[in-house]
Amino acid sequence: MTEVTKIPPNGTPTWLDLGIPDHHRAMEFYGAVFGWQFLEGPPETGNYTMCLVRGKPVAALMKNPDADATEFWWNLYFATDDCDRTVERITDAGGHIPLPPMDVMDQGRMAIGIDPAGGQFGLWQGRAHIGAEIVNEPGTLAWPELVTAQPSAARDFYAAVFEFTLENTPGDLDYTVLRRPDDRPIGGIHGERSATKSEWLTYFEVEDVDATVACATAAGATVVRPAHDTPYGYLAGLDDPFGASFRIIRSAQPG
Q: Which of the two ends of the chain, N or C, has the fewest CB atoms closer than 10 A to its terminal CB?
């Protein structure tokens, strides 16, 4: 169980949001799956809706502003103490910026970047909103993972932008753990030749993977990776009713 009470260090996965055609339908789904409660924002914020665990924000839902959109995903934001400077590092490292830095009222400053492999991610320079206030417990972010057919380009890019060190895992799986300069692991890059796009996937912690899969499918989800054991925990892959992919995991306990 981890409560976050201050703005996390640069490069830390700090926030998640999802834009979909019907955020009320998404509230019904994710409320059923994770037990989230919700704080819906006013129309002038696009009804940006906070997803709450124990009254603390852990993610957000909103109505997608593009009425013609047909593809949806959970967007991962990395913490930065200088959004504009990090944007410069992104472009210097070969990425590009579809949404340049902008202030979000008094909450913080944000931008959206795309890495050279095509993976989209956000930057969040927290102010009043520091990001997710609970992680690594049921219903919250446990781990982010970039799945890409171009892992080498992605590794070089994220190391340059956030000064991550890279740790290759043993075995046949092409997997690199990203570590902050203080050596804390913050996510991974999974090289997958069959990947048709580069995408950051979110792993949400749950107490019971099988029960959560059953609940999610009853609420309209599709299983894309059946539940299975790994050295890191018991996990499954799901697409929500809008086709947005996510993972659920009961993380392996130390020792």
A: C
Residue 99 backbone dihedrals phi, psi, to 5 degrees: -130, 105
Render pLDDT for 132-174 as a digit per residue (tens, 0 to 9): 999 999 999 999 999 999 999 999 999 999 999 999 998 888 9
In this structure, are residues 20 and 73 in contact, taking their beta carbons and an 8 Å threshold? no
In this prediction, residue 143 carries a pLDDT of 97
List the alpha helices (DSSP H) in the chain: 23-34, 83-92, 151-162, 209-218
Higher pLDDT, 246 or 68: 246
| pLDDT above 60 (res 1) | no
Q: Domain residues of the chain, as ranges?
A: 2-126, 138-251
Residue 93, both tokens = 């490292």
Q: Are 50 and 42 a contacting pair, CB within 8 Å?
A: no
User: Could you tell me which residues come within 8 angstroms of residue 114 by beta carbon, excluding any fewer than 6 positions away?
Assistant: 95, 96, 97, 98, 120, 121
37 contact partners, CB below 8 Å, separation of at least 6: 31, 51, 52, 53, 55
Per CATH, is 138-251 categorized as 3.10.180.10? yes
Calpha distance 109→231 (Å, rounded): 37
